[in-house]
Write a structure and sequence with these properties.
- The structure is a single chain.
- By secondary structure, the chain is α+β, with helices and mostly antiparallel strands.
- The protein is built from four helices and seven strands; from the N terminus they run E-H-H-E-E-E-H-E-H-E-E.
Length: 167
């Protein structure tokens, strides 16, 4: 069985994060984007998170290969939302279901609590039962459903907002 460890993202990691991200874009509705990202897009995203003081962590396997990544950031820009963060976690396709997501989320939740945040939000495609059950197991509540607010693969998509009280 492969052991995984967590660490902060390093600039060299973005090249390994790119195919994970692009696999999610190409094969699922977990990211409401039709276009694959470039390495520059991923680097800019990571640098933005880090420059804003948010975590960006990776899970690595025994060989040092990236198994997945996770981060959180601003939910909405207005000051009244400053205690709420929205998370994002994505796992390498061959390792989904191997516990990497739980490991990353556990660390993100710990960091958010330590950072004084009150609520963590996830936006999950309503048809992604696996992700919804994953969040259920972590203690998230299915708080809201927004119908037909996204479009991908020629169909309208519904989003379920899941929330976790960090207090």
């Amino acid at each position: 069985m492969t052991a995984f460890s967590l660490r902060n993202v390093a600039p060299a990691d973005y090249a390994e994060i790119l195919p994970i991200y692009n696999d999610v874009v190409a094969r699922s509705t977990a990211i409401y984007s039709d276009d694959p990202a470039t390495l520059g897009d991923i680097e800019n995203y990571g640098q933005m998170r880090l420059s804003e003081g948010f975590p960006f962590i990776v899970a690595v396997d025994d060989d040092g290969k990236i198994a997945g990544y996770g981060t959180y950031g601003t939910f909405r820009a207005r000051p009244g939302y400053r205690y709420t963060v929205e998370h994002s976690v994505h796992i390498r396709p061959d390792l989904r279901g191997a516990g990497v997501g739980s490991m990353l989320m556990g660390e993100l939740i710990k960091l958010a609590k330590a950072g004084g945040y009150h609520i963590m939000i996830g936006a999950v495609d309503a048809q992604n039962e696996g992700s919804l059950r994953f969040h259920d197991r972590l203690g998230f509540t299915r708080s809201a459903r927004l119908d037909e607010i996204g479009r991908k693969f020629g169909r309208w998509l519904d989003v379920v907002f899941v929330t976790l009280n960090l207090d």
